[in-house]
Amino acid sequence: MSRNIQDSNLDTQTVRGFGDEWSRFTQRELSEIARKQIFEDYFSLFDWDSLPQGALGADIGCGSGRWAMQVAPKIGHLILIDASIDAIEVAKSNLNNCTNVSFINASVGSLPIDDNSLDFAYSLGVLHHVPETEEALKSVAAKMKKGAPFLVYLYYAFDNRGPVYRILWKSSDLIRRIVSKLPHPMRYIVSQIIAALVYWPLARMARLLDFFGALPSSWPLEYYHDKPFYVMRTDALDRFGTSLEQRFTRNQIKTMLLNAGFENIRFSDQAPYWCATCVKD
Predict the structure, then answer these.
(1) What confidence category does residue 7 fall into, taking pLDDT thresholds of 50, 70 and 90?
(2) Is the C-alpha dihedral spanning 137, 141, 147, 151 positive or negative?
Protein backbone atom coordinates (compact mmCIF):
# COMPACT_ATOMS: atom_id res chain seq x y z
CA MET A 1 0.00 0.00 0.00
CA SER A 2 1.35 3.42 -0.90
CA ARG A 3 1.81 5.96 1.89
CA ASN A 4 0.73 9.58 1.53
CA ILE A 5 3.43 11.54 3.37
CA GLN A 6 1.32 14.65 3.79
CA ASP A 7 -1.60 12.71 5.24
CA SER A 8 0.36 10.61 7.72
CA ASN A 9 4.15 10.37 7.75
CA LEU A 10 4.01 7.94 10.61
CA ASP A 11 4.87 4.33 11.30
CA THR A 12 1.95 2.64 13.06
CA GLN A 13 4.10 0.13 14.93
CA THR A 14 6.33 2.89 16.26
CA VAL A 15 3.32 4.95 17.39
CA ARG A 16 1.92 1.96 19.29
CA GLY A 17 5.30 1.36 20.88
CA PHE A 18 5.48 4.90 22.22
CA GLY A 19 1.94 4.66 23.51
CA ASP A 20 3.04 1.63 25.48
CA GLU A 21 6.21 3.37 26.67
CA TRP A 22 4.49 6.48 28.04
CA SER A 23 1.77 4.38 29.66
CA ARG A 24 4.51 2.55 31.56
CA PHE A 25 6.74 5.56 32.22
CA THR A 26 4.37 8.44 32.86
CA GLN A 27 7.25 10.54 34.32
CA ARG A 28 5.26 11.17 37.49
CA GLU A 29 7.90 9.25 39.42
CA LEU A 30 10.64 11.59 38.21
CA SER A 31 11.66 14.22 40.76
CA GLU A 32 11.13 17.89 39.95
CA ILE A 33 14.88 18.48 40.24
CA ALA A 34 15.71 15.77 37.72
CA ARG A 35 12.94 16.93 35.37
CA LYS A 36 14.23 20.50 35.35
CA GLN A 37 17.82 19.33 34.87
CA ILE A 38 16.91 17.27 31.79
CA PHE A 39 14.72 20.11 30.50
CA GLU A 40 17.70 22.47 30.65
CA ASP A 41 19.87 19.93 28.81
CA TYR A 42 17.52 20.12 25.84
CA PHE A 43 16.34 23.74 26.02
CA SER A 44 19.69 25.42 26.81
CA LEU A 45 19.78 27.03 23.35
CA PHE A 46 16.21 28.26 23.32
CA ASP A 47 15.75 32.04 23.70
CA TRP A 48 12.61 32.51 25.78
CA ASP A 49 13.02 36.29 25.67
CA SER A 50 12.46 36.25 21.90
CA LEU A 51 8.84 35.15 22.30
CA PRO A 52 5.99 37.68 22.16
CA GLN A 53 3.69 38.27 25.10
CA GLY A 54 1.10 35.49 25.32
CA ALA A 55 2.95 33.34 22.78
CA LEU A 56 1.19 30.41 21.09
CA GLY A 57 3.40 27.33 20.79
CA ALA A 58 3.26 23.67 19.86
CA ASP A 59 4.84 20.56 21.34
CA ILE A 60 5.21 18.26 18.32
CA GLY A 61 5.19 14.69 19.63
CA CYS A 62 4.40 15.56 23.23
CA GLY A 63 4.62 12.02 24.62
CA SER A 64 3.98 12.12 28.36
CA GLY A 65 3.98 15.93 28.37
CA ARG A 66 7.23 16.06 30.33
CA TRP A 67 8.52 19.08 28.38
CA ALA A 68 5.14 20.78 28.34
CA MET A 69 5.04 20.75 32.14
CA GLN A 70 8.01 23.12 32.09
CA VAL A 71 7.02 25.14 29.02
CA ALA A 72 3.34 25.88 29.73
CA PRO A 73 3.96 28.24 32.69
CA LYS A 74 6.25 30.36 30.52
CA ILE A 75 3.90 31.15 27.62
CA GLY A 76 0.33 32.06 26.65
CA HIS A 77 -0.98 28.80 25.21
CA LEU A 78 0.61 25.46 24.32
CA ILE A 79 -0.82 22.89 21.91
CA LEU A 80 0.31 19.33 22.67
CA ILE A 81 0.23 17.04 19.65
CA ASP A 82 0.93 13.32 19.44
CA ALA A 83 0.03 10.50 17.05
CA SER A 84 -0.58 8.16 20.01
CA ILE A 85 -3.89 8.55 21.81
CA ASP A 86 -2.40 6.68 24.79
CA ALA A 87 0.37 9.30 25.03
CA ILE A 88 -2.20 12.09 24.82
CA GLU A 89 -4.11 10.60 27.76
CA VAL A 90 -0.92 10.45 29.86
CA ALA A 91 -0.08 14.05 28.94
CA LYS A 92 -3.59 15.19 29.88
CA SER A 93 -3.18 13.60 33.30
CA ASN A 94 0.24 15.18 33.83
CA LEU A 95 -1.03 18.65 32.90
CA ASN A 96 -4.48 18.44 34.47
CA ASN A 97 -3.77 21.57 36.51
CA CYS A 98 -2.75 23.68 33.51
CA THR A 99 -5.45 25.88 32.01
CA ASN A 100 -3.46 27.18 29.03
CA VAL A 101 -2.95 23.90 27.16
CA SER A 102 -4.90 21.92 24.56
CA PHE A 103 -4.38 18.45 23.10
CA ILE A 104 -4.57 17.09 19.57
CA ASN A 105 -4.24 13.45 18.51
CA ALA A 106 -2.63 13.83 15.07
CA SER A 107 0.46 12.93 13.08
CA VAL A 108 3.11 15.45 12.09
CA GLY A 109 2.08 15.02 8.47
CA SER A 110 -1.47 16.23 9.12
CA LEU A 111 -1.25 18.94 11.77
CA PRO A 112 -4.70 20.54 12.25
CA ILE A 113 -3.23 23.96 12.99
CA ASP A 114 -3.58 27.11 10.89
CA ASP A 115 -0.62 27.90 8.67
CA ASN A 116 1.64 30.75 9.86
CA SER A 117 -0.02 30.77 13.30
CA LEU A 118 2.58 29.52 15.79
CA ASP A 119 4.94 31.85 17.66
CA PHE A 120 7.27 28.91 18.40
CA ALA A 121 7.45 25.14 18.34
CA TYR A 122 9.67 22.34 19.53
CA SER A 123 10.02 18.65 18.75
CA LEU A 124 12.42 16.61 20.85
CA GLY A 125 13.29 13.00 20.16
CA VAL A 126 10.39 12.50 17.75
CA LEU A 127 11.11 13.28 14.11
CA HIS A 128 13.84 10.65 13.75
CA HIS A 129 11.05 8.12 14.36
CA VAL A 130 8.96 9.12 11.34
CA PRO A 131 9.52 7.74 7.81
CA GLU A 132 10.30 11.13 6.20
CA THR A 133 12.04 13.47 8.62
CA GLU A 134 12.58 16.35 6.20
CA GLU A 135 8.91 16.28 5.19
CA ALA A 136 7.98 16.39 8.87
CA LEU A 137 10.15 19.49 9.34
CA LYS A 138 8.40 21.12 6.38
CA SER A 139 5.02 20.33 7.95
CA VAL A 140 6.06 22.06 11.18
CA ALA A 141 7.54 25.06 9.36
CA ALA A 142 4.29 25.63 7.47
CA LYS A 143 2.46 26.21 10.77
CA MET A 144 4.94 28.77 12.11
CA LYS A 145 5.06 32.53 11.70
CA LYS A 146 7.98 34.13 9.93
CA GLY A 147 10.82 34.59 12.42
CA ALA A 148 9.31 32.12 14.94
CA PRO A 149 11.92 29.98 16.75
CA PHE A 150 11.99 26.20 16.52
CA LEU A 151 13.89 23.76 18.75
CA VAL A 152 14.55 20.24 17.50
CA TYR A 153 16.41 17.22 18.80
CA LEU A 154 17.33 14.45 16.36
CA TYR A 155 19.45 11.36 17.04
CA TYR A 156 23.01 11.96 15.93
CA ALA A 157 24.99 9.67 13.63
CA PHE A 158 28.02 9.71 15.97
CA ASP A 159 29.75 12.15 13.63
CA ASN A 160 31.56 13.66 16.62
CA ARG A 161 32.67 10.26 17.95
CA GLY A 162 35.56 7.92 17.19
CA PRO A 163 35.46 4.58 15.35
CA VAL A 164 35.34 2.45 18.51
CA TYR A 165 32.25 4.30 19.73
CA ARG A 166 30.56 3.76 16.36
CA ILE A 167 31.35 0.04 16.44
CA LEU A 168 29.78 -0.23 19.90
CA TRP A 169 26.66 1.51 18.63
CA LYS A 170 26.36 -0.80 15.61
CA SER A 171 26.45 -3.76 17.98
CA SER A 172 23.71 -2.25 20.13
CA ASP A 173 21.65 -1.45 17.07
CA LEU A 174 21.59 -5.11 16.10
CA ILE A 175 20.08 -5.81 19.51
CA ARG A 176 17.52 -3.02 19.00
CA ARG A 177 16.39 -4.50 15.69
CA ILE A 178 15.67 -7.80 17.44
CA VAL A 179 14.12 -6.43 20.64
CA SER A 180 11.87 -3.95 18.84
CA LYS A 181 10.13 -6.81 17.01
CA LEU A 182 9.10 -8.54 20.24
CA PRO A 183 5.61 -8.17 21.78
CA HIS A 184 5.38 -5.07 23.97
CA PRO A 185 5.61 -6.92 27.33
CA MET A 186 8.80 -8.67 26.19
CA ARG A 187 10.28 -5.42 24.85
CA TYR A 188 9.72 -3.90 28.25
CA ILE A 189 11.32 -6.79 30.15
CA VAL A 190 14.39 -6.94 27.90
CA SER A 191 14.84 -3.16 27.97
CA GLN A 192 14.77 -3.15 31.79
CA ILE A 193 17.42 -5.88 31.89
CA ILE A 194 19.56 -3.75 29.58
CA ALA A 195 18.98 -0.72 31.81
CA ALA A 196 20.13 -2.67 34.88
CA LEU A 197 23.07 -4.53 33.33
CA VAL A 198 24.38 -1.95 30.86
CA TYR A 199 23.07 1.57 31.49
CA TRP A 200 23.37 1.58 35.28
CA PRO A 201 26.93 0.15 35.59
CA LEU A 202 28.35 2.39 32.84
CA ALA A 203 26.55 5.47 34.20
CA ARG A 204 27.67 4.88 37.77
CA MET A 205 31.25 4.24 36.69
CA ALA A 206 31.03 7.51 34.78
CA ARG A 207 29.86 9.22 37.99
CA LEU A 208 32.89 7.84 39.83
CA LEU A 209 35.25 8.99 37.10
CA ASP A 210 33.60 12.41 37.13
CA PHE A 211 34.14 12.64 40.89
CA PHE A 212 37.87 12.23 40.32
CA GLY A 213 37.85 14.60 37.36
CA ALA A 214 38.75 11.81 34.95
CA LEU A 215 35.54 11.30 32.97
CA PRO A 216 36.25 11.20 29.22
CA SER A 217 33.59 12.68 26.95
CA SER A 218 33.75 9.51 24.86
CA TRP A 219 32.62 7.29 27.74
CA PRO A 220 29.56 5.22 26.66
CA LEU A 221 26.33 6.49 28.26
CA GLU A 222 28.27 9.30 29.93
CA TYR A 223 25.15 11.45 29.67
CA TYR A 224 23.49 9.39 32.42
CA HIS A 225 26.24 9.82 35.01
CA ASP A 226 24.12 12.30 36.98
CA LYS A 227 20.69 10.97 36.03
CA PRO A 228 18.39 8.76 38.18
CA PHE A 229 17.84 5.11 37.26
CA TYR A 230 14.26 5.94 36.26
CA VAL A 231 15.60 7.98 33.34
CA MET A 232 17.83 5.10 32.28
CA ARG A 233 14.88 2.68 32.42
CA THR A 234 12.74 5.04 30.33
CA ASP A 235 15.43 5.65 27.74
CA ALA A 236 16.37 1.97 27.49
CA LEU A 237 12.79 1.18 26.46
CA ASP A 238 12.79 4.19 24.17
CA ARG A 239 16.05 3.11 22.55
CA PHE A 240 15.62 -0.65 22.24
CA GLY A 241 11.84 -0.88 21.95
CA THR A 242 11.45 1.40 18.93
CA SER A 243 11.27 -0.23 15.50
CA LEU A 244 11.88 2.86 13.36
CA GLU A 245 14.99 4.86 14.15
CA GLN A 246 16.97 7.21 11.93
CA ARG A 247 20.22 9.00 12.70
CA PHE A 248 21.65 12.13 11.12
CA THR A 249 24.92 14.02 11.05
CA ARG A 250 25.02 17.66 12.03
CA ASN A 251 25.40 18.65 8.37
CA GLN A 252 22.43 16.50 7.33
CA ILE A 253 20.24 18.13 9.98
CA LYS A 254 21.34 21.59 8.85
CA THR A 255 20.50 20.75 5.24
CA MET A 256 17.07 19.41 6.16
CA LEU A 257 16.26 22.49 8.23
CA LEU A 258 17.32 24.80 5.40
CA ASN A 259 15.25 22.83 2.90
CA ALA A 260 12.28 23.00 5.26
CA GLY A 261 12.39 26.79 5.34
CA PHE A 262 14.40 27.56 8.47
CA GLU A 263 17.45 29.81 8.92
CA ASN A 264 19.87 31.00 11.63
CA ILE A 265 20.59 27.40 12.65
CA ARG A 266 22.59 26.86 15.82
CA PHE A 267 23.68 23.57 17.38
CA SER A 268 24.35 22.77 21.02
CA ASP A 269 27.91 21.71 21.76
CA GLN A 270 26.86 19.46 24.65
CA ALA A 271 24.86 16.24 25.00
CA PRO A 272 22.27 15.23 24.01
CA TYR A 273 23.25 15.37 20.33
CA TRP A 274 22.02 16.94 18.15
CA CYS A 275 19.90 19.74 19.59
CA ALA A 276 19.44 22.71 17.27
CA THR A 277 17.54 25.98 17.21
CA CYS A 278 16.49 27.92 14.14
CA VAL A 279 13.86 30.40 13.01
CA LYS A 280 11.23 30.25 10.28
CA ASP A 281 12.54 31.99 7.17
Answers:
(1) low
(2) negative
